[in-house]
Amino acid sequence: MNKRIKILLHGSNLWYFGTGMLGPLFAVFAERIGGDILDISWAWATYLIITGLFIILIGKISDRNDNKEKLMVAGYALNAIFTFGYLFVSAPWHLFFVQVGLGIASALAMPTWEALYAKYEDRKHAGFEWGLVGGEGQILMGIAIVIGGFVVNYFSFKALFIIMGTVQVIAALYQARILRKN
């Protein structure tokens, strides 16, 4: 496995771990800030729709951009910023704002990451290398959900968001290593 693939894989694993800590706790958090089932549905739908729309746009832009690495790292960094944004959410409409930001961040990171991973993959081991992406990501998110539950149960959502944001910053810094490899 080449160095660029390792950077992309390990950086995304950190991202999956940081993101995975919230998982199903999102609904509990939304309820605690006064959200009801419709607020939770709308917040999650907002994230998905914004991500989908911007993935298409960013994907098109990245095809004309020779430095996909910078777009990807910007997405990871923006994701960390908006993850810390959860610390300031005290009403359902704040949650919508954070979800929009996270959607845009994901849209910056996802198509560029996938294009780079495909570019640097070892064609002879492409199935295995892509299997690592999906398999390791799922395993780490499963572990992260349990850890997130422990953090919220024994500490607080604030502690969880600080840990998540810190992991996201580390993921962004780790992914930024790819900029030196070009």
Explain this structure to me?
- The protein has one domain: Growth Hormone, Chain: A (Up-down Bundle).
- It is 84% helix and 0% strand.
- It has seven helices and no strands.
- The protein is globular, with a radius of gyration of 16 Å.
- The mean pLDDT is 93.
Set out the fold topology.
Elements: H1 3-20, H2 25-32, H3 37-63, H4 68-85, H5 92-120, H6 126-154, H7 157-180
Helix pairs in contact: 1-5, 1-6, 1-7, 3-5, 4-5, 4-7
CATH-level-2 architecture: Up-down Bundle
User: What is the alpha-carbon Rg in Å?
Assistant: 16 Å
Indicate the low-confidence ranges by residue numbers: none
Query: How confident overall, as mean pLDDT?
Result: 93
Number of domains: 1
**Number of helical stretches of at least 4 residues:** 7
What is the CATH homologous superfamily assignment?
MFS general substrate transporter like domains
The CATH C-level class name: Mainly Alpha
Report the CATH topology name.
Growth Hormone, Chain: A
Shape: globular
* Number of extended strands: 0
Structure classification: mainly alpha
**Which percent range describes the beta-strand content?**
under 5%
Give the SSE order as H and E letters: HHHHHHH
- The helix content is over 70%
**How is the biggest beta sheet arranged?**
none
Key traits:
single chain; 7 helices; 182 residues; 84% helix; globular; Growth Hormone, Chain: A; mainly alpha
Quick overview:
The chain is an all-alpha fold and 182 residues long. The protein has helices at 3-20, 25-32, 37-63, 68-85, 92-120, 126-154, 157-180.
